[in-house]
Write a structure and sequence with these properties.
The complex is a heterodimer of chains A (112) and B (114). With 112 residues, chain A is mainly beta. The radius of gyration of chain A is 13 Å and the shape is globular. Chain B has 114 residues and is mainly β. In chain B, the strands form two sheets. In chain B, strands 2, 4, 5, 6, 9, 10 and 11 form a seven-stranded mixed sheet that branches. A four-stranded antiparallel sheet of chain B has the order 1-3-8-7, with no helix packed on it. The chains are: A mainly beta (112), B mainly beta (114). Chains A and B meet through β5 and β10 of A and β5 of B.
Chain lengths: 112, 114
């Protein structure tokens, strides 16, 4: 069965610094992988997804993620953090059945 | 605005009661998903419907049930409510069945059980 582990429930970075949010997955077949963002008092919004095409996936708002099969990882990065990036980020995995499993989320804090 | 609407936004009720949460998917989306988000459990997939048929079940309790109507709106029914059912309930929709499709989330219904 698929599962997702997000390392760090809270991450703080300074404005302008690199953002790195870690996600490791477990899957018995090649997975689909997603990053979603949740701003305060809102629903989730898709940032990017991996569906077995290019291993480096570019998303909205300058975020990207790299699929590394050998490390079973799908970490999310952004070169330069903005205050508006403060939100909760969820990594998710699907094994191409009808279920999608979300990680517990990482809350990103941006320090001025 | 994702185009997914959920009503009500807030719901306060007592233990033992029954409530119904409503979701209208984006125009043209056939697939509807229900999720429960709580501090201790995180975001849990409950159930998925596609064009009126149940397609997948997650961690949905027997006290909970859902359906999707011919006009594609969906309702999540929660009965014999317990304090632990207090949570944010999200509905999401997507165009088709496959989970690689982007899901569009509604703003959620916050349920408080007293």
């Amino acid at each position: 069965a698929q599962s997702v582990t997000q390392l760090g429930s809270h991450v703080s970075v300074s404005e302008g610094a690199l953002v790195l949010l870690r996600c490791n997955y477990s899957s018995s077949v090649p997975p689909y992988l997603f990053w979603y963002v949740q701003y305060p008092n809102q629903g989730l919004q898709l940032l990017l997804k991996y569906t077995s095409a290019a291993t480096l996936v570019k998303g909205i708002n300058g975020f990207e993620a790299e699929f590394k099969k050998s490390e079973t990882s799908f970490h999310l990065t952004k070169p330069s953090a903005h205050m508006s990036d403060a939100a909760e980020y969820f990594c998710a995995v699907s094994e191409r059945d009808d279920k999608i499993i979300f990680g517990k989320g990482t809350r990103l804090h941006i320090l001025p | 605005d994702s185009g997914v609407t959920q009503t009500p936004k807030h719901l306060i009720t007592a233990t033992g009661q029954r409530v119904t949460l409503r979701c209208s998917p984006r125009s043209g989306d056939l697939s509807v998903y229900w999720y429960q988000q709580s501090l201790d459990q995180g975001l849990q997939f409950l159930i998925q419907y596609y064009n009126g048929e149940e397609r997948a079940k997650g961690n949905i309790l027997e006290r909970f049930s859902a359906q999707q109507f011919p006009d594609l709106h969906s309702e999540l029914n929660l009965s014999s409510l317990e304090l632990g059912d207090s949570a944010l309930y999200f509905c999401a929709s997507s165009v088709e069945l496959a989970t690689y499709n982007e899901q569009f989330f509604g703003p959620g219904t916050r349920l408080t059980v007293l």
